[in-house]
């Protein structure tokens, strides 16, 4: 599960009013660009006619960042990256989001995201890499109000609710 997905998800357990942000714990994480680099090197070793551009992940794109940035709650992204030990290079958040803020936390926090234009190119690229390439392979998400744990297996979060939770 990529951190962009985590940033947009909330708990829908019956009776939960403050299901955002979900707690994040991981037992295995990886950067997809590093996985792709290894696969590209292996593929290019086998395919002498291959060019570097035939394989891999898309590069950083200012337009993509500009479009996704208003939807991202930066303080939640920073908190998740910190929990995974990958916050190095990220600028500090202006506002910390806590479950007690409720679902409106997204509105509060996204309105106080750092302005993209004020960030250095390296900071924007680091944020992009964290959003799109940091992958939680195994772990869990936890509802901040109910404590319900949702497993993440093979990069897929299982957010299905039991019948009594709907």
UniProtKB/TrEMBL annotation:
Superkingdom of this protein's organism: Eukaryota
Spans through the membrane: none
GO biological process: rRNA (guanine-N7)-methylation; tRNA methylation
SUPFAM superfamilies per record: Trm112p-like
A GO MF label: protein heterodimerization activity
Coiled-coil positions: none
The family this protein is said to belong to: Belongs to the TRM112 family.
Protein's name in the database: Uncharacterized protein
Organism this protein belongs to: Fonticula alba (Slime mold)
